[in-house]
Each structure stands twice: as C-alpha cells, then as structure tokens.
Amino acid sequence: MELLNRKLKQIILKAFCDAGYMEEDINIGDCAIPKFGDFSCQSPLFLAKKYHKAPFVIASDVLLHLQKNEIIVNASVANPGYINFFIDNNYLAEYLKKYLEYVKNPLISKNKKVLIDYGGANCAKPLHVGHLRSADIGEAIKRICVYMGDDCVGDAHLGDWGLQMGMVIYAVWEKNPELVYFDDNYAGEYPKEPPFTIDELKVMYPSISKRAKQDAGLYEKVKSITHDLQSGRRGYIALWKHIVDVSKKLIKADYDKLNIHFDLYLGESDSKKYQDEVIDYVIRNGYSRISDGATIVDVSMPDDKTEIPPFMLLNSAGSALYSTTELATIVQREREFNVDQILYVVDNRQELHFIQAFRCVKKINILKKDVDLKFIGFGTMNGTDGKPYKTRDGNAMQLKELMDMVKNKALEKVKETKANYSQDEIENISDVVAISALKFADLSVFRSKDLVFDVDKFCSFEGKTGPYILYTITRANSILSKVPNIEGNFTLSDEDRKLALCLIKFTDSIQSAYEKFAPSYLCDYAYSLANEFNAFYGKSSIIHEENIDKQYSKLLLTNYTKDMLKKCMDLLAINTLEKM
Ligand code: ARG
Predict the structure, then answer these.
(1) Which of 129, 255, 346 to mutate for ligand 1's pocket (most ligand atoms within 8 Å of CB)?
(2) Of 182, 208, 230, 442, which has fewest CB within 10 angstroms of its CB?
(3) What is the C-alpha separation between 104 and 563, in angstroms, rounded?
(4) Domain with CATH 3.40.50.620 in the chain
C-alpha cells in the first residue's frame, strides 16, 4: 500500500520541479496551527538561500504549480513561507479504511535475521529492577522488529556460569557434605531430583554472597569451586544442572507474568562448546598478551577520548570470565543462528564491556560475515533522590518488591472506582492494571534515559500511563457495546478529522521506534491517540447521534481507535482489559 506521506511528497515535489525548483526531497510535517491545515511543507524556508529568493516567493510559485488532485484541498501559503493544506474528507475516509487493514498485517518482506539478547537474569539470583527494564524494553523491541519484517529470535541469555553458581554449590555442600556430588570417587549416576527445594534455593545465593563479602577465606573457596565447575568436575556439573533447571523454572514464571516470552532460554554456559576454540584461536594468532598472569586483548584505539582497557580472556587463575563467554556466544550465534544483527538490550553501565567485546570481535576477525553488533543501552530506574532505586538495606530493588508495591497501589485505585465489583474481579483487574502501569512507565521514557520510580504517577488513570490507555480501550468498548450493529456510509465530519488524522500516524511512530530501537515512540503515539479519542468523545454524542451515517462513522472511528490502541499495547507486550 502506498502511504499518504509518500503520495503527498510526490504531488508536492512535482509542483516544486514544475516551478523550477529541481529538488529530490522535501519535508512535510503536521501543520502547527490546525485551522490553517492538516499538513505543512516547510521546505521553502530551507531553499531560500540556494535559490536567492524569499521563502514566501518560493512557496507561492510552488502553489501556482500544484496540480489539481483528489487528495490535497485548500492549499495556501503562510508567512514566512509555509505551504499549508488539508486532506480531502472523502479521500481521508477511504484511505483510513484501507490503512487500518494494511496496518493489521503490513506484509513487509523479511529483512534480516536479528537475535535480541535481553532479560539477562542470573540463575539462583532473584530478578531485580534492571532485569525488568531489559525484559520490558527487549520484548517490545522484538515485537516491533518482527512487525517491521525482521526474522527475530529472542534469547534470555541467562547468567548461569559465574561465581553465583560456585556460591550455591558451596551452600549445598555446607548443609549436606555427604551428598554424592562432593564425593570424588563416586562413579555412578547422579540423582534425578535436586537436593534442595525451590524455596531453599531462593535463599542460598543471598546468604552466601553476604557472608563471602566479609569472609575472604569463604570467597576464595567459592572461587575455587567455580573454577572446578568450569573445568568440568563431574559432581559439580551434575549439581549445577539441578540449580540451572530449578532457576529457569522460577525465572520463566516471573517473565511469563510480565508477558515476556523468549524463543531461547540459553545461558552463558551454552557457549562453552565454542570457548576453548575461541581462546585457542586468539592466542594462536597472537592477538593476546599476558599481563599479570591474565590473558588479555588490547582493544584501545589511537583516537579514544577515554581509556578503553584491554578485554580479558582468562584471569590469572586461568578461568573464563563474563567477557570470555560474551565472545564465545557471538561465535555461537553466528554459527548456529546465522544472524545478521545482534541487539544487546543491557543496562547503560555495561556499555564499556560491549565496546570492548565488539572491538575484540573485529580485531580478531573471527566471524565469517559482517554481523552488526549493537548495544541498546537503557538507563536506571531511580528513586526520588535521583539514585538507582534500592531497598532500604542498600541492595538492588528486587522485582517482587517492586511488583508488590505497584499491585497494592493499583488495588487501591481500582477499589476507589469499582466499589460494586466482587473481590475477585477487583483482584483480576488490579493485576492487569498494575502490570500495565509498571511496563508502560518503563517503556514510555526514551530507553537510554533514567526514570524515576513513582508508584502514584505510574498507576494513575490520567496522564501518560498504562492505566490511562487501558481505561480508554474499555471506554471505547463500552460505547460499542451500547449500540447494536448498524450500517451506514463512512463519512468524516469536522469533529472527526483530528482523530482520523491521528489514526494514520501510527506508521510514523512505529518507524521511529524501529529505527531508534525505542518503544517510547509507540507509547507517545498511544497516548496522543487516547487523548484525541477522549477529546472526540467529549465533543460528539455518539450514542444519541440521530444521523445514521454520522453515528455509523463515529462508531467506526471508535472501533478503529480501540483496535489501534490494542495493537500498540500488543507491540509493547502489555495486556489490556475488555472492560473495567
Ligand atoms: N546477566 C547479566 C547481568 O545481570 C546481563 C547479561 C546481558 N547480556 C550479555 N550478553 N552480556 O548483568
């Protein structure tokens, strides 16, 4: 389908050329003053210098050469050189119908294979607020990329190979040193069931990690267990598998609640099979050097403004690190998934790690094709003091605590308005409202910026919030349910135009969201559409409208708005409600 923007460009560009301004492109945007036009071309302002003419003169020339067409009406020139114009009402109505069909399933041909690395939860550790942001933003980016025609795979890239694994193994040993996992002479099969419950696992890491911070001996012990695990000690590997399996279930349940679904639940450890090859390759080809016993790759460049430290391949104990698995994982993704692009949706604070990793990949020239590696950083969720949101004892805020706070606030707000609902209904509605509040707040700020956790604001039914969008959808639904199916002609009256024009702007917003990997553009769009719809609802009497064509058209617009808002929320991976 040819989009309106393109058609407008063609028509107006032709007028520019016919008037002697041989341009290849012009810009068309919204008209700043709605009573002067729906759209406006500002290009004369930028061309004045080139043609040595006043913008107003250029705009007037162009207007004279604007050929009669079915789309543009009432074009005029305004100071200092704008060409303003309206879209013909009949054309807009016809276009809108086709546009909304097209938007449902745009049939964009498959562009490229993209792997999105997001979530990044760590096995045996509870999810914290940073993981929430990564998961929310990553899931939305994945859906946006799929919509735009990319062939996407989402990978949770679980942290399952680091020190925390050594900690949990230590905790199990401390409690039950007699278990076969710790017996070097044991050659039989290991038990199928884990030697701990989910609840026991939940407390193991936090407690050992706290103790290891104060006890250097314990820390060393944990490090050596981790090293033995990574070197493949049989009993540790068997125990580690239990830890990973149980953790994955916990993590998956948390993500499911947030409507976040990964195609792959691979972990850092899954790149193990490429690790030795990569290390060997780097050393053999002379890309690394030894510094203080560690094997490192220099990745600094002459024009670096800040120092970029070397990328560490092996530490002085010969153990692989986060950086090593990063490298091996890139190789794995190229070989196993044949990716063209990898997007890393990770906290801004890890940017340096990725700069190093990407440079290292380039330097060692290990990939067979040019894979586009992109760091899609995001800011922190801060408290009102502007610092990363922490619990009272100074730890990173856990997802569960955060969700509980939001849920309680949502419950309060829903109760205020839905006094006659049953307890169950209120609970269900509040769950959806709470998750929409948290996710929409997380997504509505441009991703690289920090955001302030403000539970009152997030849960409000007014303003740029998830609950406001949810409420608008249910309002549209309630109108639609009050009027039986009617037939008529689709026409647009003046009070419908703004809503109609807003509906056709979806493609611009998804295009920006796609290009900048920023779901916030879709949030902005959904918010402006909800505002337009509520204004339209305020001005029009839909249910009591007596002219059948007018009523039919308003109902159709209501339905279109509802579908469009739901589409946006679906792309943002936020569930909605039919009624509340
Ligand atoms: N597990 C890591 C963390 O919690 C995030 C992983 C991000 N992805 C990656 N490929 N390094 O910090």
Answers:
(1) 346
(2) 182
(3) 9
(4) 115-265, 273-378
- What proportion of the chain, given as a percentage, has pLDDT over 70? 100
Pocket of ligand 1 (CB under 6 A): 117, 120, 122, 157, 159, 326, 344, 346
DSSP secondary structure, 358-409, as one string: HHHHHHHT--SS--EEEEEEE--EE-TTSSBPB-TTSSBPBHHHHHHHHHHH
Banded model confidence at residue 316, pLDDT cuts 50, 70, 90:
confident
Query: 347 CA to middle of ligand 1, Å?
Result: 9
CA of 269 to the centre of ligand 1 (A): 12
Nearest atom (ligand 1) to Cα of 347: 12
Q: Where in the chain do CATH 3.30.1360.70 domains reside?
A: 4-87
Give pTM, 2 decimals: 0.94
Mean pLDDT along residues 133-150:
97
CATH 1.10.730.10 residue spans of the chain:
411-571
Task: Compute the distance from residue 528 Cα to the ligand 1 centre, in Å.
Answer: 34
User: For 336-355, how does the pLDDT look when each residue is reduced to its tens digit (9 = 90+)?
Assistant: 999 999 999 999 999 999 99
Question: Can you give the pLDDT at residue 125?
Answer: 87
- C-alpha 322 to ligand 1 mean position (Å): 8
Residue nearest (by alpha carbon) to ligand 1 atom 11: 326
Dihedral angle over CA of 410, 415, 417, 421, nearest 10: 120
- Residue 68 DSSP label: P
Chain length of the chain: 580
- Tell me how far the alpha carbon of residue 373 lies from the centroid of ligand 1, in angstroms: 15
CATH of domain 273-378: 3.40.50.620
**If we measure between CA atoms, which residue out of 322, 367, 328 comes closest to residue 346?**
322
Q: pLDDT at position 392, please?
A: 72
CATH number of 411-571: 1.10.730.10
Q: Whose CA is nearest to atom 8 of ligand 1?
A: 120
Query: Tokens 């740029």 correspond to what residue?
Result: 464
**Overall fold of domain 115-265:** Rossmann fold (3.40.50)
> CA-CA distance, 437 to 462, in Å (whole number)?
11
Supply the CATH classification number for the domain 4-87: 3.30.1360.70
Q: Burial level of 204, CB count in 10 A (0-12/13-18/19+)?
A: buried
pLDDT tens for 3-57 read 999 999 999 999 999 999 999 999 999 999 989 999 999 999 999 999 999 999 9
Tokens standing for residue 556: 């159709």
pLDDT at 204 over 80: yes
How many whole angstroms separate alpha carbon 134 and alpha carbon 140?
Answer: 10
**Do residues 400 and 408 touch, judged by C-beta distance below 8 A?**
no
For ligand 1, mutation pick of 115, 122, 333, 351 (most atoms within 8 Å of CB): 122
111 CA to centre of ligand 1 in angstroms: 27
Rounded Cα distance between 400 and 386, Å, is: 21
215-229 residue pLDDT tens: 999 999 999 999 999
Phi first, then psi: give them for residue 313, nearest 5 degrees.
-95, -45
